[in-house]
Structures are given as C-alpha cells and as structure tokens.
Backbone:
C-alpha cells in the first residue's frame, strides 16, 4: 500500500517530439525542449530562463511539496537532529605553513567557514576571510579557500555566487584585511603563487565550462592584460595548475579520466615555455611530487595497473630517466603520494581497506599506519612544509567519529589532536559496523559496509537505505556520518555498496565498471540488495536506494532493471540522459567523459552499448517505485534538464501508483545549497522521503 495519499494531479510536460538519427537509428525525444537554448547564459543569470521551462519546473516543485507535506514536521525534526550533532562553533586543527598555522572555523548559527591563521609559535588568531560576511545578501555562495603568498603577506581567494562553478578571484592584503583592486572572473577557483608573491597562475573556464587556458596574472594589472601561459586545444582534456612545496615549480596538469600529461614551469623563469615531462599516451597516468633534487612519480606505465612509484632527476624528468622505487603489486592500489625532506609517504588500499606507508629516504626502511576495525576510512593530509618529520592524517569508521592525528615519521609517535564532537551525544557502543560480501551475477564478491543499531532486529523487518555510486574510480569510504545516525536510530540499516566502477578492490574494479563493463555496476548494486534480503537485514519492500550524479545514473538503471526490488529511489542530480549528453559535444563535460562511457558520435558500438542502459532511453511500461529526483538549475555537471526530462518520461510510462517527484533548486548547482545547514535541509528532505516510503513515520 502506498505511503502517499490524496495527491494532487501531477504535472504533465508538453510533448514536442524531436528526432535524432545516428548510425541508422532514429530516436524520438518528446521532452528535449526542456533544454534551454540559452543554457550558457542561464548559468550566469537564471532570470533569462525560458518562462515555459521555469513554469514547468516550478509546477514540479509545487507537486513535490504537496506530496511531502505530511513530512514537514519530520523534516524539521531530522534537521534539528542532524544540526544537533554538529558542533556549531567547530574549528579545524591549524596546519603549520612557514611562520603561521592556517585553519578554518565556524561560528554559532553561521553557514560559511571563516579562514584564520595564528603565529606558528603561538599567538592571537587572525581571521583572514569571513565566509558569513561574504555571503551576506547572497542566495548562494561557495568559497574556494584562501591561498597565502610565499611571504604570507597576501592571499588569493575565490567565490562562486551562482552555483555554476564559475569562480571570481580576489587578492587580499593579509595585514590589513582589505581586498586589492585585482578581480578575475570565470576562473576555476584557485590561484598558484610564484616564488616571490608578485603574481599567480590560474585556469580560465571557457563558455563551455572547460578549463582550457592557464593565465599568469601580475598583481595590479587588469585581467585583460594577463599572459596566456598554455592553452589546451583538445576539448576532451581538463587542466589544473599547482605548485611544489619548495616553490621551485609551477605544475600544469592536463588529464582526462585515464590519461595525464604534465608540463613544468620553473619559478626562476616565469616567462619560459612550460616544459613537457612525458607526452600523453592514452591510458597512461602519472603524477609528480618534488623531493629536492628529484621527482617522485606515481604511475601506471608499463602495465602497473595498481600503480608504482618511480623517481627521476629534477633536471631531466623525461621517461627514459625514470627509475623504479616502489614496485607494482597487483591488488595493492597506491592512491597518492607525498615527498618530504627525509621521507616518502603514500596512501594505499589492500583488500578494500586503506593504510599509510612511510619510507625512510636514507635507509629505504618502511612501516605502515593501519587500524583494526572491520571497515574504516583514512585520509592523508600530509604537511605544508617540506622539511618536516610530522605529517597529519585522519581516521574514522561508520561508528567512530573522525579523529585527527599528527604522526612523527621518525619516532613513529602518534598524537591525537582532535576527535569530532557530537554535541547531542553519541555512544559508538550502541551501533554496529560490518563489512559483508555480496555475490554478483558473475561471481565477483561485492563489499557492502553496514551501520545499524545493536538492537535492530535482523529478521527482514528493518528498512534499509542502500547507497551506491560506482564511477570514475571514486571509492566511497566507510566513514563516520552524523546524518546517517538519524536513519539508524529509526531502525534503518544504512548500507554502502562498494560496486564496480570505484577502486575499492584495485584499479581492475574500476575498469570492470566502465565502458563495456558498465552494466556490472548496476548488477553489483542489485546483487547487494539481494544479499541484504537473503541475510535478513531487510526485505525488498523496505529498501530505499540512493545515489547522486553518476550514482543517479545507477538509480535510473536499477529502476529500469529491477523496480520490484526497491520500495523507493532517491536520485540526486542524476546523470540519466546518458546517450543524448554523450552525443552533444557542446556540453561542458561531454568530450572529457568519452573515456568513461564511450564516444557514441564516432562509434556505433559505443552508441548501441550506451543506448542499452541509458536510463532515459530505457524507461518503459513497468511499476516504478516511489522516486524523488533532485536537480540544480545552474548545475554544469548534470544539467537540470536531465532529471526534468527523466521524471516527465517516467510519469508518462509507469504502470504503478507510486509518485514520481522532482525538486529543482532554482538557485544552486551540482552540490545543492551552499551553507552547511542549508545542505542539511536537503538531506532532511531525502531522509524524510525514505522514512515515509518505508512506513516508519
């Protein structure tokens, strides 16, 4: 029986069929008109959105609100619970960087971070960027942080006030707190200083939202006078710019999802042409970190699928001079690496669990930092200074709040600096975290991390929120979530399916969930649901599936493949119109996405493969479960019209009685609302939907 009663009539989008023929196949799209012709302008100014499109999105918002009206009190209760678990005046542990230590904090009632610094040897805290002050009067604000100059007198900071991820950069005098005249628009969000602090480098986003150019800005000059340092003409590549700990080099990082190329600019000659390290080779990845007279290179070259670490002289880092330092081990995935004066450090994952490894550069002696819980998360922060023996890392599990440690690599002393506070109280002993294995359709074992209260009955009666992502090699950590406790405290089993497409079980796990292996991602998720039912953790009519972005595509695929196995589905900014998007090379992320999904423009095989699973193209007459889709009007990653079109088509074809709901945030993008508590309101809506569908109100 449906949990939704007395619903008003749902909106019906007008049908305006558009035909598209590729590779001899004609598709008809009745809802393509929801894609605004002036979408690029909408990202900068939402008031120019076509009135017919705006009217439809607002009608969907009104319908969603009516359908969820009886949960408003629950949403407020959930919001209060989740807010109560956040220390309102929380502060990070400042990180030493030269004569200062830098960090951030929040104030009671504040939505945005405040960035600060204190003298490294102790002294008064100086606020260098007040996020709440900058957000005053704005519907949306996302800060890009503050990067101090090498002499710590200036800082470059950025902000996006529309949700479109076009950032404006400013330069602040850190002694007076005043911004200088420099104002740079349409950037990627950060700046990399030269060694003297007189200029910085940044990426410029083009009209298609691609970081295609890197510019050099000299303080005091207008943006129009900035020098173009490098332009990437391949629309399938992203670019980034960064600096070394020793301020010797500016790194230009050119990459897509499986190929990288570096170019180096010596800070001693800023007008020189950036020097190529190793030319891009399809499928070859490498990453540089400087270690004095040499570079340490993390790479998958020559068949090192799970990566190895090489070294090369700084003067001649080309590939013929690479020498193996940390060999490749199948099943030991090296995730990232850092170099310091006396130590080399890397974060690796074995058997789905992370650990930090430290190697003494003089003796080559190694030791590891690991923990004993069945499932946990490690984060390696490292250090800002190069000449140090102390690095920082964080640890948490689904029951253990986040802990921040300083670790002395020489003495192996571990110092706990901070444990995440839960003001409303949290007893880890009340909860259980487990890692179980589900058998997928081809026999692969899929890890599933679980959180539930000790007193939860495991007889099939518990509702379950099953989360999945499964793309781009992104691994979902089994980390502490104060929000998830609101579900666990209501008898839910909170589950994370570590499906193929991530790297939880090595690089092969990623490869087996992309391109020709993409459907493994969907089958793994369904297998996780089957296993949870088989083992008595839940039952099919009590599972609510959740995923966002590429995980939203997962939601659309499993809704088509196995609608009977889910009571409800939450799809946040879902990438569901995969084929149409991959056929449109004018969209911001389409060319860089081809290595992940395939290029259906050039390849008939890719076209047919994507068409076979693309959620929008495979909607059909079947009883879809209750569904909540969330979109952002200024989202450049998953454009708002994808979920809008999907919902319209689902509502047209479903043979069931459950509602299909769409909420479009008319003032935000891919990440939703920008404030820390505003985001909780969106989470409260999602959880209220899950609780309602599960019959636990």
Residues:
């Amino acid at each position: 029986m449906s949990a939704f009663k007395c619903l008003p009539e749902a909106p019906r989008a007008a049908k305006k069929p558009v035909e598209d023929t590729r590779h001899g196949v004609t598709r008809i799209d009745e809802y393509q008109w929801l894609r605004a012709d002036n979408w690029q302008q909408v990202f900068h100014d939402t008031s120019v959105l076509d009135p017919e499109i705006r009217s439809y999105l607002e009608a969907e918002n009104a319908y969603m609100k009516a359908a969820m009206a009886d949960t408003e009190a629950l949403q407020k209760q959930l919001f209060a619970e989740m807010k109560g678990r956040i220390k309102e005046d929380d502060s990070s542990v400042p990180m030493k960087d030269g004569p200062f230590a830098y960090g951030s904090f929040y104030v009671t009632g504040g939505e945005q971070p405040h960035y600060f610094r204190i003298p490294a040897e102790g002294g008064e805290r100086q606020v260098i960027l007040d996020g709440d002050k900058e957000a005053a009067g704005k519907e949306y604000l996302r800060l890009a942080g503050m990067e101090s100059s090498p002499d710590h007198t200036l800082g470059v900071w950025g902000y996006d006030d529309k949700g479109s991820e076009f950032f404006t950069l400013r330069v602040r005098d850190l002694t007076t707190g005043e911004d200088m005249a420099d104002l740079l628009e349409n950037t990627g969000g950060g700046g990399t200083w030269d060694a003297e602090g007189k200029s910085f480098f940044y990426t410029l986003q083009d009209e298609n939202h691609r970081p295609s150019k890197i510019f050099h800005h000299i303080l005091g000059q207008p943006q129009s006078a900035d020098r173009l340092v490098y332009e990437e003409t391949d629309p399938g590549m992203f670019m980034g710019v960064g600096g070394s700990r020793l301020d010797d080099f500016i790194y230009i990082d050119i990459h897509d999802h499986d190929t990288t190329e570096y170019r180096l600019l010596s800070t001693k000659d800023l007008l020189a042409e950036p020097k190529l390290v190793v030319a891009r080779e399809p499928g070859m990845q490498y990453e540089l970190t400087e270690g004095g007279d040499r570079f340490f290179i993390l790479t998958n070259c020559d068949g090192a699928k799970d990566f190895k670490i090489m070294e090369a002289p700084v003067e001649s880092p080309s590939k013929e001079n690479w020498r193996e330092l940390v060999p490749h081990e199948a099943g030991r995935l090296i995730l990232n690496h850092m170099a310091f004066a006396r130590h080399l450090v890397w974060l690796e994952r074995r058997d789905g669990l992370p650990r930090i490894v430290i190697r003494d550069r003089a003796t080559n002696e190694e030791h590891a930092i690991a923990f004993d819980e069945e499932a946990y998360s490690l984060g390696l922060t490292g250090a800002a200074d190069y000449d140090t023996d102390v690095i920082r890392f964080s640890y948490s599990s689904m029951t253990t709040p986040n802990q921040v440690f300083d670790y002395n690599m020489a003495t192996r002393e571990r110092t706990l600096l901070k444990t995440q506070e839960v003001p409303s109280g949290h007893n880890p002993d009340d909860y259980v975290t487990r890692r179980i294995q589900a058998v997928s359709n081809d026999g692969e074992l899929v890890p599933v991390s679980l959180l539930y209260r000790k007193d939860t009955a495991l007889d099939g009666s518990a509702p379950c929120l099953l989360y999945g992502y499964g793309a781009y090699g992104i691994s979902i950590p089994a980390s502490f979530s104060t929000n998830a406790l609101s579900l666990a405290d209501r008898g839910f089993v909170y589950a994370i399916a570590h499906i193929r497409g991530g790297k939880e079980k090595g690089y092969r796990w990623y490869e087996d969930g992309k391109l020709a292996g993409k459907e493994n991602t969907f089958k793994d998720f369904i297998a996780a649901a089957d296993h949870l039912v088989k083992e008595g953790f839940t039952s099919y009519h009590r599972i609510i599936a959740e995923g966002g972005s590429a995980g939203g595509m997962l939601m659309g695929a499993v809704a088509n493949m196995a609608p009977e196995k889910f009571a409800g589905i939450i799809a946040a900014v879902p990438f569901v119109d995969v084929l149409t998007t991959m056929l449109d090379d004018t969209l911001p992320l389409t060319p860089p996405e081809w290595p992940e999904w395939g290029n259906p423009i050039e390849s008939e095989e890719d076209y047919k493969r994507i068409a076979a699973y693309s959620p929008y193209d495979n909607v059909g007459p079947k009883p879809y479960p209750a569904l909540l889709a969330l979109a952002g009007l200024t989202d450049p990653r998953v454009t708002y019209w994808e979920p809008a079109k999907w919902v319209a088509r689902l509502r047209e074809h479903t043979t069931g009685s459950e509602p299909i709901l769409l909420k479009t945030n008319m003032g935000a993008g891919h990440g939703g609302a920008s404030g820390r508590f505003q985001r909780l309101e969106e989470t409260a809506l999602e959880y209220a939907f899950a609780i309602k569908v599960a019959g636990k109100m």
